[in-house]
Design brief:
alpha+beta, 2 domains, four-stranded mixed beta sheet, two-stranded antiparallel sheet
Length: about 220
């Protein structure tokens, strides 16, 4: 004969097990429905990518202290700021390659940001400044990372080649960019790696030289 208290305990445990099983089934059902809902809402089309276009890179060569024109097909976004960052990123990727003619570590991640501003003269009227912003010359502000500046090889010629190749590449792909200024981690910096002046405004058009010519 089973004692009464054991029978009651058995019934209570049986009821608790049934309730717990029901709760677990309900949670499982909700999770399954949520998973199916997520799968149905997932887009079936591939994400949009930038169209491939021809870019002109002005690549530095240490052997003869020159800039060489190199044409490459790259995915270039339509936004001018993003476009400028893309071409400069590819330029620095070439410099970070093992067989680079102008070896500089860092690659595309060395370009923190590029943004374009109207290069209006100080004496322009407000109306003229608005017109410049729409169709006039532009100033490109290139924000480099401090890691790039710290690891850049020191020397007047090698630093100058890097700076001029960046300016020339910007102008070759965005002809409205006539001036270039540099920041490092968003702040002004005296030199790139001890020699090339980063406090001045560079005239981008003057840095575009003929193939094989010295800047």
């Amino acid at each position: 004969m089973i004692p009464r208290y054991l029978a009651i305990l058995f019934v209570v445990l049986l009821v608790a097990s049934a309730i717990l099983g029901g709760v677990l089934w309900h949670l499982h059902d909700r999770a399954h429905k949520r998973l199916l809902s997520g799968e149905e809402s997932t887009p079936t089309h591939a994400p949009q990518v930038a169209p491939v276009e021809q870019a002109t890179l002005m690549v530095a060569r240490d052997a003869d202290n020159s800039l060489q024109t190199r044409l490459l097909s790259l995915p270039l976004p339509p936004d001018p700021d993003a476009r400028a960052r893309a071409v400069l990123g590819k330029l620095l990727d070439l410099y970070a390659a093992p067989d680079a003619a102008h070896p500089v570590p860092g690659g595309a991640n060395s370009i923190a940001q590029v943004f374009l501003l109207p290069a209006a003269e100080a004496g322009n009227t407000r109306a003229a400044a608005v017109e410049d912003a729409q169709s006039g010359p532009e100033l490109a502000v290139v924000n480099l990372t401090s890691t790039f500046a710290i690891n850049h090889p020191s020397g007047l010629e090698t630093e100058t080649l890097t700076v001029l190749s960046i300016c020339a590449t910007l102008h070759a792909n965005l002809p409205r960019v006539t001036q270039v200024r540099f920041l490092v981690d968003g702040q002004p910096r005296a030199t790139l790696a001890g020699h090339a002046d980063l406090t001045r405004t560079y005239l981008a058009g003057d840095t575009v030289t003929a193939e094989g010519a010295r800047p």
